[in-house]
C-alpha cells in the first residue's frame, strides 16, 4: 500500500481510534488541534496513569484496543515508558508512537527494546509527524486487512468443521473394504447401533443383522453392489442391547482418488419411528377391518373420506364408497330419515356449542334396514367439521329380541291355557266347530268373531287375536263398500286362514304341555260327599214313584257337573287388570261379591264369557282417563264392581262402574245415523228404551276402533247369549257418574 | 335444589314428572297445562329450569319456548318429547332449548339431562 498525500492519508486515518497522552496543557491543546485533522476518534489522557486507565476502559467498552497510542515520555505519576510497558503486556501488537525530547535517549532505548518502534522528536512538526504517521497507518491498514482475511478463512474452516461434525453425528454412515469388513463408522452409526466404532471396525455388518431380516435381502444387496450398482431399501437391524432399529439405506461401491474400487459405503436414515407408525397404522386398520363394524368419516358436504373399514363395503354392498354421499348411501329409500339427517348435520355445523352439537347427532336416525340387514348407526363428532359413523349389523340381535318377545308371549299363553284346561278345551272345540261351519248370517258371524277375539285375548293368544282383528276389519270394509255377499265374506274368511294360525298355537301348546294335554277328556273336581249322597239315594230307592225318584237322581247327577258361579266370574279379575293396563287406565282391582258356594250349570258359561264385552266397554268407554277424572272431582282411580245374589230362583248379577255413564243422546244420534232406528221411532222411545239401543249391532259410542272395543258388536252378542238363558237386563245409567248393568238369570231354565 | 316449572298438557305426565323431580331433591314450583300458561307462570316464578312438552294443543312447546327465550334470554328449558318428533327437537335446540328427554321419562334420563344444564346438580 502506498499513501501518497495527506488527503489519502486522512482517508485511511479518519476511522482509526487514537489514545493521546500528554501532561503539558499547552502542548496537548496544540497537538489535539493538529491530530483532529487526521482522526475522528481521539481519547485524551493527562498522564501515564490516566492514559493506562483510559486504554483499559476503551478496551472494556468497545471490546477492542485503540489502533494507535500517541504518548509523551516524561510525565508525572506514571511516565510514558512505564505506561507502554503495561499496555504492551495487555496487547503486545499495540501500535505506539512516542513523542520524545532530545534528552530522553536513554528512555528511548528502553522503549525500543520493548518493541516500540515509532518515535518522533519534540517539538512536534507537521512534516515529521506526517512521515511517521504514514508508515504507521500503512502498517495498521495492512495488518487489518490480513486479519479480515484470516477471520473469513477461519469462519469457513469452522463451517466445514461443523459440517463434518454434523455429518458424523447425523448421518448413519459406514464404509467397508471389498470383503465387507468395516473400515469406518460415523458417530451416528455408533449411537444408533449401540456399538463403539472400535467394536465395529474390522467386523462385518453381520454384527447388526436382525433375525427378522431374511437372508435374501443380504443376498440382493451383495449382488447389486458387486455389480457396481446402488442398492436402496429398508432394513431392520439389531442393536447391541437386543432391541432393533429400522433404516432406509443407500449402499454403493466406494472408489479412492484414483478410481480404484476399494470397498463399499453406506449411508442410512433412521426410520424406526416411521416404521413403528406404519406398523401401528396397519394394526389399527387390521383392528378396524376385523371389528365387524363399519367405520367411516365424512365431511361437511357429506362426502365420505378415503379411509374406512372394510365392513362398510359389505354393508353397502359396494366396491368403493370413497367420495360418495353418505346420506344417499344410508337413506336413499327413506325420505323422512334423509331429510332429518340433512337437517341435523346442517344444524350441527351451524352450532358453536359442543354439548348442543352432540344433542343434534343424538337425534339422527339410529337404525335403518340396509340391504335387508338391520343396521345400527352411531354418530361421533370429529375435528374440523368432520363426522364419524359407526355401523353395526344388529340383524341377529333383532331376531333374538323378536324371538325372546315371542317366547315371553308363548309363556303367558301356556300359563293361561294350563291354568284352566277345561275352559280352553271347550273354547278350542267351539272355535274349531265355528271354523268348519258355513257362514249363514253376517251378523251372527261378526258376533262370533268378536267374541272369539275377546276370549282368545284373555288366553294371551296374540296371533289368533291379531288375525281375527284383521278379518273383522276387512269384513267391515266390505260392509262399508256394500259387498256383503256370502261368497265374498266366505272368501275373506278363507283368505285369513284362521285354522293354520290357530294350529300353530295348538302345536306350541302340545309341544310344551304334552300331546295328551288337549286330547284327554275334561276333568271335573267332584265333592266326594255329593257322590256319597247320590249313592245312598240310589241305594234307598223305593219302588213306588220310581219315575219321580229317577228324575230326581238324574237332576242330582246334573248338579254334580255344576260349577261355581264365582269361579266362572273370577277370570275377569285378570281381564280388568290386563285391559286397563293396555288402555292406560287406572282402575282398582275388580272385586267380585257373592256366595262362593253358588253352583250353576255349564249352560251359563257362554253368557259369562260374553260378559267380556261389558268389562271391555266399561274400561274403554266408561272409566275416564286420570286427567278427566281429576277435573270432574272424582277419585283418579276408577272402580268396577261385580256383585251377584240369589233372589228367589234367579241370580241377580250386577256389573257397575263409576265412569262417565252412557251418553244416551250421542247413542241415539248414532243409531239414527246408522239406520238402526228411524228418527220417528226414536222420538217415541223413552230413556230406558233408548238405553237398550246399546245392545244393537254396529252401534258404538266410540269413534275409534281398537283391538279391545268399539266394533259395536260386543253387546249384541251378549244379548243373544242372555236370551238363550231366558234372562233379562236392566240398565241404570247416571250420565257423568257411572252405569250399572243388572242381569236377572233364571237358575233353572228347564 | 332447583326451582322447576313443569309444562305438559297431560296430568299423568305432570304428576309423574313432579314426583320424579321432587324425589331427585328439586322443587316443582309450578305446573302449566299449556304453552300460554307456561309463559305466564315463567314470568311469575322465574324458575331455574323448565321442562316443556313439545306437542300440546293450542300453543305448542316450541312457540312457548320461543316466546320465553325472547323475553328471558337466560331461560333454561329442556324439551320433553316422544319418538318421531326428532325434527321438532332439533328446531327447539336451534331456538335455544338446553336439552331434551325422550319419553318414557325416568329419573336416570332426567338426571343426565339436567346435569348437562347444571353440572353441579349431578346426582350420585
Walk me through what this model shows.
The complex is a heterodimer of chains A (750) and B (124). With 750 residues, chain A is of the alpha+beta class. Chain A has 5 domains: 6-149, Rossmann fold; 171-276, Beta-Lactamase (2-Layer Sandwich); 291-393, PAS domain (Beta-Lactamase, 2-Layer Sandwich); 400-524, no CATH class; 563-746, 2-Layer Sandwich (Heat Shock Protein 90). Chain A contains 31 helices and 21 strands. In chain A, strands 2-1-3-4-5 form a 5-stranded parallel sheet, with helices on both faces. In chain A, β4 (95-100), α5 and β5 form a beta-alpha-beta unit. Chain B has 124 residues and is α/β, with parallel strands linked by helices. Chain B has a single domain (3-112), classed as Rossmann fold (3-Layer(aba) Sandwich), CATH 3.40.50. Chain B has helices at 11-23, 35-45, 61-71, 86-95, 107-117, and strands at 3-7, 27-32, 49-53, 77-81, 99-102. Chain B has a 5-stranded parallel sheet, with helices on both faces. In chain B, β4 (77-81), α4 and β5 (99-102) form a beta-alpha-beta unit. Chain B starts with a strand and ends in a 7-residue tail after the last helix. The chains are: A alpha+beta (750), B alpha/beta (124).
CATH class category name of chain B: Alpha Beta
Measured on Cα atoms, how large is the radius of gyration of chain B?
13 Å
| Main sheet summary of chain A | 5 strands, parallel
Largest sheet of chain B: 5 strands, parallel
Strand order of the largest sheet of chain B: 2-1-3-4-5
Structural class of chain A: alpha+beta
Structural class of chain B: alpha/beta
CATH homologous superfamily grouping of the largest domain in chain A: Histidine kinase-like ATPase, C-terminal domain
How big a fraction of the residues of chain B is strand? 15-25%
Number of helices of chain A: 31
CATH architecture of the largest domain in chain A: 2-Layer Sandwich
**Fraction of residues in β-strands of chain A:** 15-25%
Name the CATH class of the largest domain in chain A: Alpha Beta
Strand order of the largest sheet of chain A: 2-1-3-4-5
The domain tally of chain A reads 5
Mean pLDDT of chain A: 85
| Shape-level CATH architecture of chain B | 3-Layer(aba) Sandwich
| Count of helix runs of chain B | 5
Q: Which stretches of chain A are low in confidence, meaning pLDDT under 50 for 5 or more residues running? A: none
Question: How many independent structural domains of chain B?
Answer: 1
Unreliable runs of chain B: none
Amino acid at each position: 500500500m502506498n499513501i501518497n498525500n495527506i488527503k489519502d492519508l486522512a482517508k485511511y486515518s479518519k476511522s482509526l481510534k487514537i489514545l493521546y497522552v500528554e501532561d503539558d496543557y499547552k502542548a496537548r491543546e496544540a497537538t489535539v488541534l493538529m491530530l483532529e485533522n487526521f482522526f475522528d476518534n481521539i481519547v485524551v489522557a493527562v498522564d501515564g496513569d490516566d492514559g493506562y486507565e483510559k486504554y483499559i476502559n476503551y478496551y472494556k467498552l468497545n471490546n477492542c484496543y485503540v489502533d494507535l497510542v500517541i504518548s509523551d515520555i516524561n510525565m508525572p505519576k506514571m511516565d510514558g515508558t512505564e505506561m507502554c510497558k503495561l499496555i504492551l503486556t495487555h496487547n503486545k501488537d499495540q501500535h505506539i508512537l512516542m513523542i520524545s525530547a532530545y534528552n530522553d535517549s536513554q528512555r528511548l532505548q528502553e522503549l525500543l527494546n520493548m518493541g516500540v518502534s515509532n518515535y518522533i522528536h519534540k517539538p512536534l512538526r507537521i512534516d515529521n509527524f506526517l512521515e511517521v504517521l504514514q508508515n504507521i497507518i500503512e502498517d495498521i491498514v495492512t495488518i487489518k486487512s490480513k486479519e479480515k482475511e484470516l477471520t473469513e478463512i477461519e469462519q469457513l474452516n469452522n463451517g466445514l468443521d461443523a459440517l463434518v461434525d454434523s455429518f458424523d453425528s447425523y448421518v448413519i454412515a459406514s464404509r467397508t473394504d471389498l470383503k465387507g469388513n468395516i473400515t469406518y463408522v460415523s458417530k451416528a452409526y455408533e449411537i444408533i447401533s449401540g456399538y463403539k466404532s472400535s467394536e465395529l471396525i474390522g467386523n462385518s455388518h453381520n454384527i447388526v443383522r436382525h433375525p427378522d431380516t431374511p437372508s435374501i435381502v443380504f443376498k440382493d444387496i451383495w449382488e447389486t453392489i458387486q455389480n457396481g450398482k446402488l442398492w436402496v431399501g429398508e432394513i431392520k437391524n439389531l442393536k447391541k442391547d437386543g432391541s432393533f432399529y429400522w433404516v432406509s439405506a443407500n449402499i454403493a461401491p466406494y472408489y479412492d482418488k484414483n478410481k480404484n474400487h476399494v470397498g463399499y459405503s453406506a449411508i442410512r436414515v433412521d426410520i424406526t419411528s416411521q416404521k413403528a407408525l406404519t406398523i401401528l397404522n396397519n394394526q389399527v386398520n387390521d383392528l378396524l377391518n376385523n371389528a365387524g363394524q363399519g367405520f367411516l368419516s365424512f365431511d361437511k358436504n357429506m362426502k365420505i373420506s378415503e379411509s374406512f373399514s372394510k365392513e362398510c363395503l359389505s354393508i353397502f354392498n359396494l366396491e368403493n364408497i370413497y367420495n360418495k354421499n353418505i346420506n344417499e348411501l344410508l337413506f336413499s329409500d327413506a325420505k323422512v330419515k334423509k331429510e332429518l339427517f340433512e337437517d341435523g348435520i346442517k344444524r350441527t355445523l351451524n352450532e358453536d356449542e359442543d354439548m348442543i352439537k352432540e344433542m343434534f347427532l343424538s337425534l339422527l336416525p339410529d337404525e335403518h334396514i340396509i340391504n335387508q340387514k338391520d343396521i345400527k348407526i352411531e354418530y361421533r363428532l370429529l375435528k374440523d367439521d368432520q363426522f364419524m359413523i359407526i355401523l353395526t349389523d344388529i340383524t341377529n340381535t333383532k331376531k333374538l329380541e323378536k324371538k325372546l318377545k315371542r317366547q315371553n308371549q308363548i309363556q303367558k299363553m301356556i300359563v293361561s291355557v294350563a291354568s284352566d284346561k277345561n275352559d280352553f278345551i271347550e273354547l278350542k272345540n267351539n272355535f274349531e266347530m265355528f271354523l268348519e261351519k258355513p257362514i249363514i248370517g253376517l251378523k251372527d258371524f261378526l258376533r262370533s268373531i268378536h267374541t272369539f277375539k275377546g276370549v282368545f285375548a284373555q288366553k294371551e293368544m296374540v296371533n289368533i287375536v291379531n288375525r281375527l282383528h284383521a278379518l273383522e276389519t276387512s269384513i267391515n270394509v266390505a260392509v262399508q263398500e256394500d259387498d256383503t255377499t256370502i261368497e265374498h265374506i266366505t272368501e275373506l274368511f278363507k283368505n285369513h286362514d284362521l285354522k293354520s294360525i290357530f294350529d300353530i298355537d295348538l302345536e306350541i301348546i302340545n309341544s310344551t304341555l304334552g300331546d295328551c294335554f288337549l286330547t284327554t277328556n275334561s276333568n271335573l273336581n267332584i265333592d266326594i260327599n255329593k257322590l256319597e249322597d247320590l249313592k245312598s239315594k240310589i241305594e234307598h230307592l223305593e219302588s213306588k214313584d220310581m219315575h219321580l225318584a229317577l228324575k230326581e237322581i238324574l237332576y242330582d247327577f246334573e248338579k254334580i257337573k255344576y260349577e261355581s258361579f264365582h269361579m266362572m266370574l273370577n277370570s275377569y279379575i285378570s281381564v280388568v287388570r290386563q285391559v286397563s293396563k293396555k288402555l292406560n287406565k287406572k282402575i282398582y282391582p275388580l272385586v267380585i261379591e257373592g256366595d262362593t258356594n253358588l253352583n250353576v250349570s255349564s249352560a251359563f258359561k257362554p253368557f259369562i264369557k260374553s260378559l267380556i264385552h261389558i268389562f271391555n266397554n266399561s274400561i274403554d268407554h266408561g272409566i275416564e282417563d286420570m286427567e278427566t277424572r281429576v277435573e270432574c272431582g272424582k277419585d283418579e282411580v276408577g272402580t268396577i264392581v261385580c256383585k251377584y245374589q240369589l233372589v228367589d230362583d234367579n241370580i241377580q248379577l250386577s256389573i257397575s262402574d263409576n265412569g262417565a255413564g252412557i251418553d244416551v243422546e250421542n247413542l241415539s244420534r248414532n243409531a239414527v245415523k246408522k239406520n238402526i232406528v228411524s228418527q220417528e221411532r226414536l222420538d217415541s222411545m223413552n230413556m230406558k228404551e233408548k238405553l237398550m239401543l246399546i245392545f244393537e249391532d254396529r252401534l258404538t259410542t266410540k269413534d275409534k276402533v281398537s283391538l279391545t272395543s268399539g266394533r259395536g258388536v260386543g253387546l249384541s252378542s251378549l244379548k243373544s247369549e242372555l236370551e238363550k238363558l231366558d234372562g233379562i237386563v236392566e240398565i241404570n245409567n247416571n250420565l257423568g257418574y257411572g252405569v250399572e248393568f243388572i242381569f236377572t238369570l233364571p237358575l233353572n231354565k228347564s | 335444589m332447583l326451582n322447576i316449572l313443569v309444562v305438559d298438557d297431560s296430568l299423568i305426565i305432570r304428576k309423574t314428572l313432579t314426583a320424579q323431580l321432587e324425589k331427585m331433591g328439586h322443587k316443582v314450583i309450578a305446573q302449566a297445562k299449556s304453552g300460554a300458561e307456561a309463559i305466564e307462570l315463567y314470568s311469575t316464578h322465574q324458575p331455574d329450569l323448565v321442562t316443556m312438552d313439545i306437542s300440546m294443543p293450542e300453543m305448542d312447546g316450541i312457540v312457548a319456548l320461543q316466546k320465553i327465550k325472547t323475553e328471558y334470554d337466560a331461560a333454561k328449558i329442556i324439551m320433553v318429547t316422544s319418538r318421531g318428533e326428532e325434527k321438532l327437537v332439533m328446531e327447539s335446540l336451534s331456538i335455544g332449548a338446553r336439552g331434551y328427554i325422550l319419553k318414557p321419562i325416568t329419573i336416570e334420563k332426567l338426571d343426565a339431562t339436567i346435569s348437562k344444564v347444571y353440572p353441579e346438580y349431578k346426582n350420585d
